[in-house]
Design a protein that fits this description.
Length: 336
């Protein structure tokens, strides 16, 4: 690992203006929210490297999370950039900030949006192809052994207090899974959720439950999302599925969750070329799943992960930059 070579100071020392890039005086000081989950911290460090080495910005990473960062951007105009914002969490505030020309939605951090669903391991679908549908799950409910009651089948939901506990519970009711012998199992924690999948995979046992992407779990374990046969009803999802007081939930697949890069208007105006990069920079869920799995397996933080990404995933980041700039980035990487 070359973590010491990828510190902010080392990156800034490499920050010579590239052809077609804005000068440091034009871009100036820039703050990027280093959010407290791995996909966001990876994006923050990638953006720091690109903005400093390509666009001549003087970048500082600042700690962040969804609510605190979003509120600060709306009310104070700082930080300049939130690389990965699950924008539905503060949609009205962000939309108002855009309307009042204080913020911009630069682009989609995750090109497909955040993905949620009910999943089964691929090895099960290989053995029983009908398990890729909810009707197939119901017909074979007996194979999903409950960890505590042999008379019941297990559906793994979300830990108490998580937002996904509400929507997964409402869909459990809408799909009438209890009538087919399923019990909604609370895994107790995020570690409990991932541990249950890992255990099933190690033993090639049956497992059925809620999960999301991007995540290291779906990067490590090949899973198949179960088709409810309903399509997506966005109104139902927003107005009932996600509400704790939803009395009569209906079946709907999960709509993609918008995941945006958000910047301040001031940054977009002063550094249009850097802003255009942020509008282009995007990952698919499968790409991010793989990167998150690598980060977990190697206990890598953002500083280590950015080196791994830029060194091993040229096919992704070279799509974000012009050909002449790509070559200069490669030269900088080779010099580390």
């Amino acid at each position: 690992m070359l973590k010491s070579k990828f510190t902010a100071g080392a990156i800034f020392a490499l920050s010579l203006p590239f052809v077609g890039a804005a000068s440091a005086n034009e871009c100036g000081d820039v703050t990027i929210a280093d959010m407290n989950w791995n996909s966001a911290t990876l994006m923050a460090h990638v953006d720091q490297f690109i903005l400093q080495n390509v666009f001549g910005c003087n970048v500082e990473l600042v700690p962040g999370d969804t609510m605190a960062t979003g509120t600060s951007m709306v009310e104070k105009g700082e930080p300049d950039i939130a690389p990965e914002m699950w924008s539905n969490s503060m949609r009205k505030a962000f939309d108002k900030g855009v309307e009042e020309k204080r913020l911009r939605y630069a682009g989609n951090s995750l090109s497909e949006g955040g993905e949620e669903g009910f999943w089964v391991p691929k090895y099960m679908v290989d053995k029983y192809p009908d398990l890729k549908t909810i009707e197939g799950i119901k017909k074979k409910a007996g194979i999903f052994k409950h960890p505590e009651d042999s008379m019941l089948s297990a559906f793994y939901g979300c830990p108490a207090g998580w937002n996904c506990q509400i929507n997964s519970g409402n869909l459990f009711r809408a799909l009438e899974l209890e009538e087919y012998g399923f019990d909604l199992v609370d895994p107790g924690s995020g570690a409990g959720m991932s541990g249950a999948i890992a255990k099933a995979y190690e033993r090639e046992e049956a497992w059925f439950g809620y999960y999301w992407a991007p995540s290291s779990v779906l990067g490590k374990y090949e899973m198949v999302k179960v088709d409810f046969g309903s399509g997506i009803d966005v109104d139902e999802y927003l107005n009932c599925t996600t509400k704790e007081d939803c009395l009569s939930p209906k079946v709907t697949m999960y709509p993609p969750s918008p995941v945006n890069t958000i910047t301040t208007e001031a940054f977009a105006v002063k550094a249009p070329a850097a802003y255009e990069y942020l509008a282009t920079r995007s990952f698919t869920n499968q790409q991010m799943n793989e990167l998150l799995a690598w980060m977990e397996e190697n206990q890598a933080d953002g500083e280590i992960a950015v080196e791994h990404f830029l060194t091993n995933y040229e096919s992704i980041w070279t799509q974000w930059l012009s050909a002449d700039v790509v070559e200069k980035v490669k030269q900088k990487l080779a010099a580390l």
